[in-house]
Specification:
The chain is an alpha/beta fold. The protein folds into two domains: 2-214 and 472-504, no CATH class; 217-467, Nitrilase/N-carbamoyl-D-aminoacid amidohydrolase. The chain is 47% helix and 13% strand. The protein has 16 helices and 14 strands. The strands form three sheets. The chain has a six-stranded mixed β-sheet. The protein has a six-stranded mixed β-sheet with strand order 7-8-9-10-11-12, with helices on one face. Strands 1-14 form a two-stranded antiparallel sheet. β10 and β11 (437-439) form a beta hairpin. It is globular.
């Protein structure tokens, strides 16, 4: 048992260390180094079972350190009993860890030289596993490798071309080249080692070059914006006695906002839109209409008196428009068939929203065309581009109060930075407790306010037009590259070992 624990402690520790590559730390070289170690360890494993164990341990470390904040959502705010919440969190992280475990098992079963697996097979499998994780059971793409590179790494330059998954592929390719280059160098194979490291430098240099390209163009003059952060505690948000206080809070914030476009967070108003007093709506509209502007208000909406939606509704100089969230969070916003019993354990208001239409168009507000997405929706780049290239700005509204004072709101901010970079659009992010921010088309934060404070972020945002390659192709290009790597690996394997030096490593 002691030997088993020792053998798995290192990959688990390195998996946990990988989280330092993501926000709020932004130490982007760390995932490259930990993945390089993982790829080397997987190809040295004596059999597929051992490789699967190494991948599983790495995944348990990664997701245990990186997404264990789901415990906060379930226990602190969903009021699930602590032991049950801890078990559910552990099972969730264990499920996510099955993906790197499957990668380890598959690469061992496929066989071939260590060089072939590290440089071709493992990067392709890594991308496909992340893409599958972002799709299966409605998807959970959190902590995909590509996010760790945004916005500071040269590899982030691939985002407008290949999207976040494609950036993750370049991270995995870098890790494979590094692992194999070091392996060759240790064995005395200097020329292959130099070639591997040259390939690594070329990959990063090309990413830096891509960062210099203007993928989209400015459209008109910048628009003044005000992003409101009400900081309403989650455990008080839906209490009836606090409704008037919340309405008053946001009314005051709107009144003091100079922006032509004013955005409130997700479900900022804790009552159905149909129940919001008419005079309150008129008050909000009058304030922004005077300057030819609009306010976008988050509130649950029940237009037919039965089905209800997580919606954003506009008021002001433009005709009133609505966006309804279409990618819902399982157990948080809807209950999958057969899981109604979960609602008896969790205390979540409005736990069974209906889905909005998938083909909703940008909202024409304050002289811009705004592609709105709500909370978790911005984790799915292929869904955001449905409103492009028509949209000139992106807007993400969220209530990350569910995650408390954890790394989750910062990880969510980095996801938003990736969506801005992929699409070549500025992104406006209005949240209840933070992180509220203005992000430019290169994924850089142009302004933000501190968490857990009542605040308003005022600034200018530049609308942009044009379509990045990712907007045109979505994830297809990255998946095609992964397929090409797999085909090349299969062809080389059929031809036999990839050189004598490659046979010596592993």
């Amino acid at each position: 048992m002691k030997r088993f624990i020792t053998a798995h402690a290192q990959p688990a520790a390195l998996g946990a260390a990988t989280v330092l590559g993501y926000a709020p730390f932004y130490l982007f070289p760390i995932p490259l180094l930990t993945l390089a170690w993982l790829f080397a360890a997987l190809t040295r494993a004596p059999d597929a079972r051992t490789a699967a164990h190494i991948g599983l341990a790495f995944g348990l470390g990664l997701f245990g350190a990186g997404v264990s904040w789901v415990y906060v959502s379930m226990h602190d705010f969903g009021f699930m009993p602590a032991p049950l919440a801890a078990i559910a969190t552990a099972l969730f992280c264990a499920f996510l860890a099955l993906f790197p475990a499957a990668i380890g098992w598959l690469q061992a079963r496929c066989g071939g030289s260590a060089a072939l697996r590290r440089i071709l097979l493992l990067p392709a499998l890594w991308l496909l596993a992340e893409w599958l994780r972002g799709w299966l059971f409605t998807g959970f793409p959190w902590l995909a490798a590509g996010y760790s590179q945004v916005p500071f790494s040269p590899l982030a330059g691939y985002a407008p071309l290949l999207g976040g998954y494609g950036v993750g592929l370049t991270v995995a390719l870098s890790a494979g080249l590094l692992a194999q280059g070091v392996g060759w160098a240790r064995s005395g194979a200097r020329r292959p080692a130099a070639a591997a490291l040259a390939g690594l430098a070329l990959l990063w240099g090309a990413g830096f070059g891509l960062q210099q390209l203007p993928w989209t163009q400015p459209a008109g003059e910048p628009v003044s914006v005000s992003l409101l952060q009400g900081n309403v505690p989650q455990d008080l948000k839906w209490q009836r006695e606090n409704r008037l206080l919340t309405l008053s809070l946001y009314g005051d914030l709107v009144r003091a906002s100079p922006g032509r476009l004013v955005i409130l967070p997700e479900t900022a108003l804790p009552l159905f839109w149909e129940e919001v007093p008419e005079d309150y709506r008129a008050y909000l509209a009058a304030r922004v209409r005077a300057g030819g502007g609009d306010v976008l208000v988050g509130a649950p909406e029940r237009p037919d008196g039965e089905a209800y939606y997580n919606s954003m509704v506009s008021l002001g100089a433009s005709p009133s428009q609505v966006y309804r969230k279409q990618h819902l969070v399982p157990f948080g916003e809807y209950l999958p068939p057969g899981f109604a019993w979960v609602n008896r354990i969790l205390t979540i208001p409005l736990a069974d929203f209906s889905r909005g239409a998938p083909d909703q168009q940008p909202l024409a507000l304050a002289g811009q065309k705004l592609a709105v997405n709500i909370c978790y929706e911005d984790a799915f780049g292929e869904e955001i581009i449905r409103q492009l290239p028509q949209a000139t700005l992106l807007a993400n509204v969220s209530n990350d109060a569910w995650f408390g004072d954890s790394v989750a709101p910062w990880q969510h901010l980095q996801i938003a930075q990736t969506r801005a970079l992929e699409t070549g659009r500025w992104l406006l992010r209005a949240t209840n407790t933070g992180v509220t921010a203005i992000i430019d088309e290169r994924g850089r934060i142009r302004g933000r306010v501190a968490q857990f404070q009542v605040a308003a972020l005022h600034g200018d945002a530049q609308g942009r037009t044009g379509a990045t390659p990712y907007v045109r192709w979505g994830n297809a290009a990255a998946l095609a590259l992964a397929g090409l790597l797999l085909a090349l690996a299969a062809w080389l394997r059929r031809r036999g070992p990839a050189g004598a030096s490659a046979r010596q490593i592993g």
